[in-house]
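Morning F.,

Quick status update on the modeling queue. The single chain you submitted on Monday has been processed. Sequence for confirmation:
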Amino acid sequence: MYTFLLALIYLAFISLGIPDSLLGAGWPVIHKAVDVPVSFMGFVTMTICGGTIISSLLSNRMTRKFSTRIVTVVSIFFTAIALLGFSISSKFWMLILFAIPYGLGGGAIDAALNNYVALHYTSRHMSWLHCFWGVGTIISPFIMSWSLTNATWMAGYRIVGLIQLGIALILLATLPVWNKVGGEKSSASTKALGLSDALKIKGVPFLLLGFFAYCAQEATSMGWASTYLVEFRGVSAERAARFASLFYIGITSGRFLSGFIMNKLGDRRMIILGTCILALGVLSLMLPVQSSILPLAAFVTIGFGCAPIYPCIIHSTPANFGAENSGAIIGIQMASAYIGSTFMPPLFGFLANHTSFVILPFFLAFFVALMISMVLLTFRITAKESKSSYPQSLT
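Structure tokens below.
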């Protein structure tokens, strides 16, 4: 049953990743169909992000009251309804309307499952689970591409919505498995840790700032790699798009490979190792080399370096702050992550528009330095507490 439950959680992580890259893949056609400027995608993503931040902050209270399994299943149903809603949206306001359950469902799944895995599984599985999230992000653009070629963008959302609905039904039918495996009980009778209380715990503000910085540089790398290669490095748009997509392959394959060594090295060493690889990729972008091969390889290296950092920061949270606090803190971490990934890429675009795309590696370097300094400071502050509040074997 333990293995079967793990397989179900893997399936849930795929469901978490599937919708994430769908909007971007279909937007060049969607915005014309709903008769809005291409820039209006920002309103949709901001609505999704707002819902995600809210549900991330509330996830600890919901999980304590209803359990992880219930929150996960209901949240996947929310995203399925939202995706199917997108598939019938003929007006822009309808996209905004269905973006609300889209964001609410995604944030709740993310925080609840990440906390459950951090508490009950080793860092190896945390890495592989986030690898499966990457599998989900790779699947959906192919579905949208097929739909645009053979049908309409609505068909793409309908197919993904039905896949999501199928996953939700599978998890609903297997709810008793969570009870048989055990390890989780309702905590409605205990007081949930509030945002202000969580921020008073030593090290939490530094951790949130570090996680914000990590997600800021990751999202900026993802969003601006192609434009940087075209505008500053003189790479053709077709080639740039092809190689920028390798960032996703680098981060997904990196998480798969990292899983084999995570249990041996531990979260802290894996974060340092990933940061070193990430920094190497960023520094490579700074080299004044005319060849286009170096910057292309640099983005792959950046993706590979990013691979272990996110899952290891999440997995180390119970060890750093105690199992009783991890649900609330991971929820706040998710919120800080979405703030970083939502607002920092547009900030870079604004700065680059008024200066030059040459600033990209320096922009990334700032957030990499901020991330690693804040995360290591967190580990240093919580060293004594982590040894006494959570089993060292899980790190």
